[in-house]
Write a structure and sequence with these properties.
- By secondary structure, this protein is α/β, with parallel strands linked by helices.
- The chain contains 14 helices and 12 strands.
- Strands 2-8-7-6-5-3-4 form a 7-stranded mixed β-sheet, sandwiched between helices. It has a 3-stranded antiparallel β-sheet with strand order 9-12-11, covered by helices on one side.
- A hairpin with a 2-residue loop joins strand 11 and strand 12.
- Bound molecules: pyridoxal-5'-phosphate.
- Pyridoxal-5'-phosphate binds next to helix 3.
């Protein structure tokens, strides 16, 4: 038997968090001006916070170590302990944050069946405080939707949710870990997203390719409270400018190029016959194939392609900065052959 031609470097499509900072980004980090951010004196953090607030048309932004902390802080800003959050059952805030909203915020969540939500369903969930019931205080939307396969929620839906939440005096939160992808894919300005949400958590460490960092984006009063919550959670950082510099670099150089990730994800989706994808996530349902999630991941790994198992019969491939055209083609070829597509 001929030796198999296993490529030297695997194509790693498990997650867009895996991107390594480029040399140029590292250089920006190395030369960053820094100060103590807990004192509010780190010029690189302050510049990034101002820039991101402005991008979304909000008064303020607060740098936090992770998107999870960003979400946790935002939810506590808009939902008091024992009050209620409505989101979808697959949302990151109730799926992948180790129950933080419940533990840290004492927040009760009620979920609609997973995936992007429609306005009517959310409207049917809203409850006032009453005998035995607590008030629904906020609705959380994920943009793009991670478990929803990187789906972009249309602006009409977001505006409908905005009207609904405004009518009931509720807040609208955005888990915008990949809001950049949504903005690029749907040609929607970030400011337009900013206008519909009271709070947003946005990540620099996904498709933008920064090693660490997210921001809470909101009004000045909530931002002041966010700084208190951040410190209480142990997320107040000192010379964080080295991290902020990576984020600023990413916003300058890696925002528009997300379109390339989307194009490559489209190429992979086409090869696998899984239908069009909105952004950089290609979900693959393995029902009716010879594989389940773990066995496909193992077989692909043997041929130098790494993908994530996200359900017993479901895997995903995520394009990002470290996956070029060759890598995307190679991955598409390997997985298509395995699935006989
Ligand atoms: C990655 C992600 C987050 C935040 O994750 P961290 O790893 O804590 O930065 C939040 N929401 C969604 C939808 C995500 O994909």
């Amino acid at each position: 038997m001929l030796p198999s031609l296993v490529p030297m470097t695997p194509v790693d499509l498990r997650s867009d968090t895996l991107t390594r900072p480029t040399e140029a980004m590292r250089a920006a980090m190395a030369s960053a001006e820094v100060g103590d951010d807990v004192y509010g004196e780190d010029p690189s953090v302050n510049a990034l916070e101002e820039q991101v607030a402005e991008l979304f048309g909000h008064e303020a932004a607060v740098f936090v170590p992770s998107g999870t902390m960003g979400n946790q802080i935002c939810l506590r800003l808009v939902v008091a302990p024992a009050e209620e959050l409505v989101c979808d059952a697959d949302a990151h805030v109730v799926t992948y944050e180790h129950g933080g909203a419940a533990q840290h915020g004492g927040i009760q969540s009620r979920t609609v069946p997973g995936g992007p939500m429609d306005v009517e369903t959310v409207a049917s969930m809203v409850r006032p405080a009453g005998w035995g019931t607590v008030a629904t205080s906020a609705v959380s939307v994920e943009q793009t939707h991670n478990r929803g396969g990187g789906a972009v929620q249309p602006m009409e839906v977001l505006q409908g949710l905005r009207r609904l939440t405004a009518t009931h005096g509720m807040a609208l939160h955005c888990d915008g870990a990949r809001i950049w992808n949504a903005s690029v894919a749907s040609a929607t300005p970030l400011e337009a997203y900013g206008a519909v949400f009271d709070t947003l958590s946005v990540c620099l460490s996904k498709g933008l390719g920064a090693p660490v960092g997210s921001l809470v984006v909101t009004d000045s009063a909530r931002a002041a409270e966010a700084r208190v919550l951040r410190k209480r959670l142990g997320g107040g950082l000192r010379q964080a400018g080295v991290l902020a510099a990576a984020g600023s670099y990413a916003l300058r150089h890696h925002l528009d190029r997300l379109a390339e990730d989307h194009r490559r994800a489209g190429l992979i989706a086409d090869a696998l016959g899984v239908g069009p994808v909105d952004t950089n996530i290609v979900p693959v349902d393995l029902t009716g194939t010879a594989f389940d999630g773990p066995s496909l991941a193992a077989a692909a790994r043997e041929q130098g392609v790494l993908l994530s198992v996200v359900g017993p019969q479901r895997v995903r491939l995520v394009t990002h900065l470290d996956v070029d055209d060759d890598g995307a083609r190679r991955a598409a070829g390997v997985v298509a052959r395995l699935l006989e597509r």
